[in-house]
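In this section we walk through a basic example: taking a raw amino acid sequence and producing a predicted 3D structure, encoded as discrete structure tokens. The instruction is simple. Fold the sequence below.
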Amino acid sequence: MNLTIDENIFKQYTGLKVGVILIRNVNNTRRISYIQSLLRGIWAQRQKEFEDKDIHDEPYIKAWDEAFGMFGVSPLKHQHIVAKLLSRAKGGEEVAHKTALEDLCKYFNLKYLLPVRGKDMDWLCGDLNLVYTKGGEPFRPINSIEVYNAGEGEVSYMDKGGIVQRYWNYRECERTKLTMRTVNSMFLVEDLSNMHLDKFGEILREMGMNIVKYIGGEIEEYILTPENPSVDLGVEGRRTADDSKIPLQEKAYFLKI
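The resulting token sequence is shown next.
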């Protein structure tokens, strides 16, 4: 099973680099107090830093605002993940803790101001591709029983089951979300700021070291570029998946809560 970035994405977004951190054989069942402390610390730091600043003046944020605008999506209505977290921190919201992997994802987003999203690789179905949608592809948002159909020309990560991550890093799907049962996962780290490749690689290595230090597991790091647009994820995933169809037991669960 491969992750591949379509060459047309690289052509339109010329500064794009995508870091891939493969995390295998991890125990995500425990909540780890030190990770929670790291997240609370960076949350408070960014809250103070942006108290009197416009988030969208930040160069890294501007790059993503412009990227969203290029395919007709408002970055104010549909905030990319870093802007969303900064807005919550600036607005005085308390940090919400989840699993260790999810908390590390949030921490990395805020520490490096780079979009980071996590995926349970065992729930992928077929190859994962960053592509332009043709229109009509199903997207079931995380923690939801609603299914939406993509418009034409959206930049999204897709597999055979549907859209795994919509509008670059705006929102994830329910099927591949990180949970306490996650064993094999990956972090997708995206850059559109023309950061030097060496610096970007150093950040990925720091992330990988922190994952191993605090959670464990086996780590591999890759950078996808126009010269190297694909990586083997090393998992089999699901044989079938269809995000347009929601099992009755899942509907009952979500309606109950």
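Looking at the output, two observations stand out. Residues 209 and 219 are 8 Å apart (CA to CA). The chain has seven helices and twelve strands. In the next section we compare this with other chains.
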